[in-house]
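Molecular record:
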Amino acid sequence: MNAGFHTSSTGDEVNPEDFAYLQELIYRESLVVIEASKAYLIHCRLSHLARVEGFKDITEMVRSLRGNRINGLHYRVVDAMTTNETYFFRDVHPFEVLRQEVLPELIRRRQDSRRLVIWSAACATGQEPYSLAMLIREHFPGLLDWNLRILASDLSRRVLGQAREGVYNQIEINRGLPVAHLIKYFKKESNLWRLRDEIRRMVEFFECNLSAPFYDVPRADLILIRNVLIYFDVQDKRKVLGKMRRHMAPDGVLLMGATETTLNVDEEFERVPAPKCSYYRIRQR
């Protein structure tokens, strides 16, 4: 067996041909690149799915995938292979920069139109856009009288389902959520926590694949696409950033993950340094 391919103790394996097929399927439908050295991820994430779907192993599931047009099973395979890591007020510093610098400046620039559109792309289970909604209620309550839209999208229908419900377990709650916000904006239901409607209704969730055209996405004043492009190759990063730029207001703001940058990817953006963080604007010619 080739190096980089994993065999489990039960004999369930991802052979090179199946890996190549899955690698191409996942890339085509999500732009996520699975390197050969990460083949173990396919085994770990798809072995359970194969059995849930009634197949004895991944090989049998791939045989079915190959023999049918793109359908729900293909979608569930791609969904299982996407990373949905997120938590409330992730990394803290970007939200402080939004509170202290970005949002006050956007509010000043939008005083006449009283319209503000924020888009959280690849929002997973919703903690990021809900963090934005709580931040606005706490620090910019005047925006509630504006035409304010907080949009949140993801490729995965499964995680969008949880995001729309706004229900989280204790582990999810413990990751980043201030106690004061928990008391104020959540209610306990058995061993789960449900977000109160006043926050949940501030966010509009929709399905969006970054590999496809961004149909029906309005021009945004602030776009967050954090810790997503790290899974893409340079060419696809460039394509996605180009589409993001075309959906941004000329004076809008792009916020990426701490390890991500537009440098040497899309030179139409310029970096704006901020305390323990940075964000990007469209370069003015």
Summary: The radius of gyration is 20 Å. The chain has eleven helices and ten strands.
